[in-house]
Amino acid sequence: MNLNNLKTYVPAKLYERGLDYFEKDFVEQLTEDAPNRWHALVAGTRDYEVSVNLAKDGTIVGSYCTCPFESDSLCKHEVAVCLAIRENKKENGSSAVDIQARLKSLKKAELLEILEELVEKQPTVQLYLKEKFADPNGMDEEKARRLIQKSASRASRRGFIEWERTDQALEGVWEVLEYLDGLNSPHDAERIIRLSFIIINECTEMLQIADDSSGGISSAIYESLDKISEALAEWPEDLDEATVDGMLELLYPHILFALEQDITDAASHLVEAVLQWNERGGFTEKFYNFIADLIASDEMQNKTYKYTEERFHMYQLAILRQQGRQELVEAFYTKYRHYPAIRKAQVRQALDAGEFEKVIRLCDESEQLDANFAGLLNDWKKLRFEAYEGMGNTEELIGLSFEFALDGEEEYYYKLRSLVDVERWPEKLEALLAEMKSRPRSRPLYLSILIDEKRLEELLDYCRTDVSAIEHLHPHLVADYPHEVNEIYTTYIYRQIERASNRKAYWSACQKIKGFQQALGAEAATGLIEELKFMYPKRKALLDELERLSKD
């Protein structure tokens, strides 16, 4: 999301409210505390503090607001501030050049006065200068670590970083990332990788003492992982054994750290990143054994679940396939067949090779192994379905399509309909609907079929059983069954009112009358309102809501 495309990503209602706040000048004290680090107050029910962190191109990399709004979207206050920042940038777009020219024209004493004022008022400037003077030649790992730890420490309160202080905690991280942005990836690849590891490790530690509701800390981790992947992809030198050994040695402890912390998918990302090198040289055995060492590590074996181990074995399988020795691949399938993912890979390979009988045999074996896991059973049946399609086995396809349709899978209902002969279809449809009627999972598909097939009597019977369904099914029924729809809808509204015990519940029940009016007309709605007033003369809150509804 960028300052220039807010309207595309922010829900319309929030964007309009934020725009309204901006246009009414509710955004106050807008300041750029550091390059692309903005802060403002937004007037509302109370004053709310908003911080917005930007990338150089205007991309919003982090934001927070002290209001109680909880969502993945920006709140209206953040929208207002972003709009204010955008306006500020438009109005002062050329100010950087003017400022530089002005600074160059100042005398030394005047420049020192400005600098002293900045150091006094802006802690980030003071921190930047300390680090700058400590190592004028650039940023090393220790300097990056200190920067990140200092900003995290400043944001911490009693050993915890609250969500509204996350951006402050990440100031050091953003500074390191900005430094990395200025490096030349091919030339500085190893430095980028080493500094990115500092960010990943420090942010992983930070996650354990922080509320990362805004996702800023996690975003910094994954941005750093991307930088490592890019650096490895653009590695400038020809790969030799010593280079590969050195990189694997560098990566190994960091992957173990990620496995041990078990907070992010960093371990998998790092393995996938370095496996890019397997395409550039004959290092298959070295990478295979590297992953084997990771799998055998205490950090992996101490996990209570085997999902990550299964994924790492899949990396080994990919290496063997790339090597092209099918006998090793088949031996691998046999050795690790207790992993569903390995068996699925074997089935998929057989499907691609057109070995359909083999697919059916492997799927049958897997269905027995995974008999207690409904999701896996479903996967194996769908793979069998693909094999039967390849074989042209219509009867087996009909059986499986029927089964999947009973689970509410619309795609397979249409496959079933295309597979069954026209003469047999009515009988098959009757059997399908009879079983679907008692299966909650197939309910949406069941109703869709009733509508498509114009089986309105059955649709009406369904609404009599579940009166709430009349709210969305009445358009299909009202033309042919106006009196029945009136009766069911009225029953539904009465039940809502009977359950109500406070004004909010009465308001909610009365809102149903608006839908009733759309279905049956204003005259019917007026009659229902009068009927309800007569039936409940002592429910003052209800009467108030009904009266308000009459005036709308």
Shape: flat
Helix-and-strand structural type: mainly alpha
Share of helix, binned: 55-70%
Distance between the termini: 40 Å
What is the average per-residue confidence, as pLDDT, rounded to a whole number?
A: 90
Q: What's the assembly state of these chains? A: single chain
Sequence of strands across the biggest β-sheet: 1-2-3-4
Low-confidence stretches: none
Biggest sheet details = 4 strands, antiparallel
Rg result: 32 Å
Strand content: under 5%
Number of strands: 4
Number of helices: 30
Keywords:
552 residues; mainly alpha; four-stranded antiparallel beta sheet; 30 helices; flat; metal-binding; zinc; zinc-finger; Znf_SWIM
Structural write-up:
- There is one protein chain.
- The chain has 552 residues and is mainly α.
- Helices cover 69% and strands 5% of the residues.
- The protein is built from 30 helices and four strands.
- The chain has a four-stranded antiparallel sheet, covered by helices on one side.
- This is SWIM zinc finger family protein.
Question: What's the topology here?
Answer:
Blueprint: H1 6-9, H2 12-23, E1 27-34, E2 37-42, E3 48-54, E4 60-65, H3 76-91, H4 95-105, H5 108-121, H6 123-134, H7 141-155, H8 166-169, H9 171-181, H10 189-207, H11 216-233, H12 241-261, H13 266-274, H14 284-296, H15 298-301, H16 307-323, H17 326-335, H18 340-352, H19 356-369, H20 374-391, H21 394-406, H22 410-419, H23 425-436, H24 443-452, H25 456-465, H26 470-477, H27 482-499, H28 503-520, H29 522-535, H30 540-551
Helix pairs in contact: 2-3, 5-6, 7-9, 7-10, 9-10, 10-11, 10-12, 11-13, 12-13, 14-16, 18-19, 18-20, 19-20, 20-21, 21-22, 25-26, 26-27, 27-28, 28-29, 28-30, 29-30
